[in-house]
Design brief:
disordered N terminus, 5-stranded antiparallel beta sheet, Molecular chaperone, 7-stranded mixed beta sheet, Ig-like_fold, 230 residues
């Protein structure tokens, strides 16, 4: 889950005062959308003690621009202090792959209201944009996400490491290590695909160890495999 902060400086006086004391908490770190579901829900809670927040949500295909085939209800709403509301996410039925998972991204932008008495002051307002992975999961896929993770294989050619995912599910790494070195720059492998990363100088070893992030956002069991070469 990536968090981007946009700073908006409203110039109207001489004092700069932060306007946040809480914030909107999102109920999950990833969303699994089974294709046979009419919709899935995502809970949002405003942890602020006093201020309402404005919440805007949408789905994109990964480039940050192209909207994905999902409808968010409500797309824009006010969430009062200490209140909870769920986003309802519904697939439009537009074509997506049927033999493997598809990855899209849910964006949640939250904006705090201005505090009373802040008129005529300089106010530093933080706009939070949270981006969550949304996995569209067709019915009837072979295997499970855990099996895809456990079945990963790895090949080294020179200083390039290639991860190979023969399964139908995304494998997102919690940890990936070779010879005691963490390889944080390789974050996931798409289903029925490969992913490559350049190994740092001096990294050696013949055994990879890794954990994947599960549907619930925690780490899977640890796996290891001999490193193929050539």
């Amino acid at each position: 889950m990536r968090l981007t902060l946009f700073l908006i400086l409203c110039l109207c006086g001489t004092i700069i005062t932060p306007t946040w004391a809480g914030g909107v908490q999102i109920g999950r770190t990833r969303i699994i959308y089974p294709s046979d579901k009419k919709e899935v829900e995502l809970a949002l809670i405003n942890r602020d003690n006093d201020l309402p927040w404005l919440v805007q949500s949408w789905v994109d295909t990964g480039d940050g621009k192209t909207r994905g085939p999902f409808i968010i209800t409500p797309p824009l709403f006010r969430l009062d202090a200490q209140k909870e509301q769920s986003l309802r996410i519904a697939w439009t039925g537009a074509p997506l792959a049927t033999d493997r998972e598809s990855l899209l991204f849910l964006n949640v932008r939250t904006i705090p209201a201005s505090e009373k008495g802040s008129e005529g002051k300089n106010v530093l307002r933080l706009i939070f944009k949270t981006r969550l992975k949304l996995f569209f999961r067709p019915a009837g896929l072979d295997g499970t996400p855990a099996q895809s993770c456990a079945g990963l294989t790895f090949r080294r050619t020179g200083n390039t490491l290639t991860a190979i995912n023969a399964g139908a599910f995304y494998s997102v790494f919690d940890t990936l290590q070779l010879g005691g070195h963490r390889l944080d720059s390789l974050d996931m492998v798409a289903p029925k695909s490969t992913a490559q990363v350049a190994l740092p100088a001096g990294v050696s070893g013949q055994t990879l160890s890794w954990r994947c992030i599960t549907d619930y956002g925690n780490a899977s069991a640890s796996h290891s495999a001999a490193l193929q070469t050539g």
